[in-house]
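FORM 12-B: Structure-to-Sequence Request
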């Protein structure tokens, strides 16, 4: 079969329309999980198929089969072998592409990650391709494999008995017509399960008390799975604290003390597959401020604090990280320590809907939200804000008195964001995507910028609603 490598977004939109009503023609109502090994270093990557699995019902949309969201660093595409017709695609990002921007990868070290792509179970032989964005942000094919559902050996169809208890926390309709979330716990021992139940209920209420999720609550289903770990808590390698957690989450991802991710993808997917899901939320039974979120992969949130009055920070993390994993929103902050080096290429427009390089002021990606007369870039008290961030950055974030010492800087920065001339308006405010210069965010403040319970700005909110519509309509 001729290799199909398409960078043109327009073709995908046409395909999305052409194949919008063909689910029953091409698929059966089951999920095909394709597991990969993804290996490489900076500037180099290889894929190898590990195993294909038949899982439960397909949770995704049966009408929006071809992805028109244009989100993610990668995109999985499914073609019919006989006709070369594209009839399914999904964008996503990975730990691997984040790791490629670290110093370790920059030195030429190789690393292997385990990854999965989910798609509806095809009726006939397919070509599955993995595409990645090039320097112009167009998708280019980098891997391809043929999968034959009639093969007696290519797909593992073993029926797995549920290892943990799955509970429907919120149900508003069939999985095919809703956004389906699954909440998992890690670092919860048997004695901690009642805490997990309360945590899941609490954070679900937090999510659906936040706009625009609050207004779109009826478009979601939520499951919980009561995952039992051998011990309470998760590893903190920098403190030489090691725990046996069921899903393998740990602090110190990529050398960042507060970044919580897991490389135990197979264990994660085996557990999540007990319920129909589009997106995975992981609650971590530990007390260090932290979390993480990668588009269309999962998000994590810590759930314990011994600092009275700071419980709201966990609520902030849960919704903020979900913004990453659900809508592909980029981090808008730039003064916090991260392990990335050149996360965004110079003079290239990022794919994230809320970060721009402002290469063309007349064609700003969120120009429909700009009021007439708004100066671009939008002026704000950045120098003062940055000086406060610099002083705050000298503090030891893991010290017992960190929060007390942080408070005056924190409040002063908060006042700047509230009182700046263009507060509450959409513009292009310099400082975003871990870069103090050259990248811009839509508003002075947003849930993706400051450590606060600020609302999502209009651009982020629109991006979230677009994803909700895609999965539920």
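FORM 12-B RESPONSE
SEQUENCE OUT:
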């Amino acid at each position: 079969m001729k290799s199909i490598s398409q960078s043109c977004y327009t073709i995908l939109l046409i395909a999305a329309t052409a194949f919008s009503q063909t689910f029953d023609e091409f698929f059966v109502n089951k999920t095909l999980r394709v597991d990969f090994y993804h290996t490489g270093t900076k500037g180099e990557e290889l894929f190898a198929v590990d195993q294909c699995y038949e899982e439960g019902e397909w949770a995704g949309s049966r009408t929006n089969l071809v992805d028109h969201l244009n989100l993610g660093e990668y995109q999985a595409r499914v073609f019919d072998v006989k006709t070369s017709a594209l009839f399914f695609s999904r964008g996503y990002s990975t730990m691997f592409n984040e790791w490629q921007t670290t110093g370790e990868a920059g030195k030429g070290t190789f690393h292997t990650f385990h990854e999965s792509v989910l798609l509806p179970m095809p009726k006939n032989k397919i070509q599955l391709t993995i595409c990645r964005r090039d320097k112009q942000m167009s998708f280019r094919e980098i891997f391809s494999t043929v999968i034959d559902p009639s093969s007696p050996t290519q797909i593992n169809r073993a029926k797995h008995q549920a290892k943990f208890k799955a509970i429907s926390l919120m149900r508003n309709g069939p999985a095919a017509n809703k956004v389906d979330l699954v909440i998992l716990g890690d670092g919860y021992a048997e004695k901690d399960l009642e805490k997990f139940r309360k945590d899941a209920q609490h954070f679900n209420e937090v999510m659906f008390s936040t706009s625009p999720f609050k207004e779109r609550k009826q478009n979601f289903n939520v499951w919980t799975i009561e995952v039992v770990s051998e011990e309470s808590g998760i590893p903190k390698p920098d403190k030489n604290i090691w725990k046996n957690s069921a899903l393998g989450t740990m602090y110190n991802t990529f050398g960042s003390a507060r970044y919580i991710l897991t490389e135990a993808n197979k264990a994660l997917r085996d557990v999540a597959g007990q319920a129909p899901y589009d997106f995975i939320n992981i609650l971590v039974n530990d007390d260090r401020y932290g979390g993480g979120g990668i588009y269309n992969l999962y998000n994590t949130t810590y759930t314990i604090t011994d600092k009275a009055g700071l419980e709201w920070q966990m609520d902030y993390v849960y919704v903020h990280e979900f913004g990453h994993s659900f809508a592909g929103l980029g981090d808008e902050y730039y003064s916090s320590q991260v392990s990335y080096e050149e996360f965004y290429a110079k003079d290239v427009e990022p794919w994230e809907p809320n970060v721009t390089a402002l290469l063309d002021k007349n064609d700003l990606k969120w120009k429909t939200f700009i009021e007439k007369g708004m100066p671009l870039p939008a002026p704000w008290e950045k120098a003062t804000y940055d000086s406060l961030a610099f002083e705050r950055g000298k503090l030891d974030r893991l010290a017992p008195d960190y929060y007390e010492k942080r408070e005056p800087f924190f409040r002063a920065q908060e006042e700047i964001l509230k009182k700046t001339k263009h507060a509450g308006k959409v513009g292009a405010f310099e400082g975003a995507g871990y870069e103090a210069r050259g990248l811009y965010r839509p508003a002075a403040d947003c849930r993706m910028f400051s450590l606060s319970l600020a609302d999502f700005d209009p651009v982020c909110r629109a991006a979230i609603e677009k994803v909700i519509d895609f999965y539920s309509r």
